[in-house]
Design brief:
The modification N6-(pyridoxal phosphate)lysine is found at residue 224. The chain has 363 residues and is of the alpha/beta class. The chain contains 13 helices and 12 strands. It has 2 domains: 6-44 and 271-361, Aspartate Aminotransferase, domain 1, CATH 3.90.1150; 46-269, Aspartate Aminotransferase, domain 2 (3-Layer(aba) Sandwich), CATH 3.40.640.10. Helix 5 (90-102) packs parallel to helix 6. The radius of gyration is 20 Å and the shape is globular. Bound molecules: 4'-deoxy-4'-aminopyridoxal-5'-phosphate. 4'-deoxy-4'-aminopyridoxal-5'-phosphate binds next to helix 5.
């Protein structure tokens, strides 16, 4: 039969959360709360909706393959040059482009033991070698150990801040110490998918450090706080030479006209972002209160989700939640079989979760 490359044969596909409609059909439930994919419970800015109505007149034309207008807007937003931006089909795609352009067989890529699933997937698909660094206590990235893992084969280091699925965070001074310890020939990919949600006394904004570090790549997304997950659009900030290499391996029309227009409209509505951040802060406090009520251990949460310890019963709890129409994320694939990741939701969705937990945990 037909066989793929050996590194592809061994891959386990990314497991997305079940779509709401599928669970409704499967279980005959009408009340379904999806708290599994770190989406924005407020949806998207109303300005995005009007931008999309306009875009529907222009379906027959190819999108702007260079995302010219969006890149100019992003450049102004971050005070960088447009040549420093690469736009992708979700930040997922730009993360993959980095691997495709910089790592292959014989090369090493460093990431944390509980890092976002796309780093190991892209690394292995490229035939490169993943170097997994154990987390420090509390499931945080161990930046000292990651810097110490660099060999002369290392091409890339992936950091997620906050990390998914652990929600953990490192501050600017810790990051700058790390950058000083990493040789300049190694690219450091700082994934800031949840950047906007973070409140921290030493908050790290990678987009402002590109003039200091030539080997820094920062990724951002419109899927989380901007609420555009279904449109698939994200981007990367890096020195122009790096962006140029990535554009060489990028598919010419990788983002749609709809996604580009929506992203510009979303960027223009920073008041919506602020509302979403405030909403998330309250929702997270409420989720934490629910976990506390059931005496469940949680990890410090800096994004829009809470990582909760359910012990050996975690898988059974997940199945029981599904039966009641509550979709959360099991973390066995992340080496955290005793934990579930719960995204913030509307008050109704979170009440649904709390009620379901009450019947499952009998407290
Ligand atoms: N990075 C992290 C840390 C994430 O959690 C996610 C989404 N789960 C992504 C990147 C990719 O998101 P998107 O492709 O929608 O931008």
């Amino acid at each position: 039969g037909i066989r793929p490359l050996p590194q592809v044969e061994q891959l386990i596909p990314y497991q997305p959360g079940k779509p709401i409609e599928e669970l409704q059909r499967e279980l005959g439930l009408t009340r379904v709360s999806k708290l599994a994919s770190n989406e924005n419970p407020l949806g998207a800015s109303p300005q995005v909706i009007s931008a999309l109505e306009k875009a529907s007149q222009e379906i027959a034309r190819y999108p702007d393959g260079s995302a010219y207008a969006l890149k100019r807007r992003l450049a102004a937003f971050h005070s960088v040059e447009p040549e420093m931006i690469v736009v992708g089909n979700g930040s997922n795609e730009v993360l993959e482009l980095v691997v495709r352009a910089f790592a292959g067989p014989g090369d090493e890529v460093i990431y944390d033991q509980h890092a976002f699933a796309v780093y190991p997937l892209s690394t292995r698909a490229a035939g490169a070698t993943g170097v997994v660094v154990p987390s420090s206590e509390g499931f945080a990235h161990d930046l000292d150990a990651m810097a110490a893992a660099v060999t002369n084969r290392t091409r890339l280091i992936f950091l997620a801040n906050p990390n998914n699925p652990t929600g953990t965070y490192f501050g600017r001074s810790e990051f700058e110490r790390f950058m000083q310890a990493v040789p300049e020939r190694v690219l450091v990919v700082l994934d800031e998918a949840y950047f906007e949600f973070v409140s921290h006394s030493d908050k790290l904004d990678g987009s402002q450090l590109l003039d200091r570090y030539a080997n820094l790549v920062v990724t951002r997304t419109f899927s989380k706080v901007y609420g555009l997950a279904s449109l698939r659009i994200g981007y990367l900030l890096a020195r122009p030479e790096i962006a140029d290499y990535l554009n060489r391996v990028r598919e010419p029309f990788n983002t749609s006209h709809f996604a580009q227009l929506a992203a510009m409209a979303a960027l223009d509505d920073q008041a919506f972002v602020q509302r979403s951040v405030a909403y998330n802060r309250e929702a997270l406090a409420e989720l934490k209160a629910t976990a506390d009520r059931f005496a469940l251990e949680t990890l410090p949460a800096y994004g829009n989700f809470l990582t909760v310890h359910f012990g050996p019963e975690a898988n059974a709890v997940n199945n029981a939640l599904l039966k009641q129409g509550v979709i959360v994320r099991p973390l066995a694939g992340y080496g955290m079989a005793q934990w579930l990741r719960i995204s913030t939701g509307t008050p109704e969705e979170q009440a649904h979760l709390a009620e379901a937990l009450e019947t499952i945990l009998h407290v």
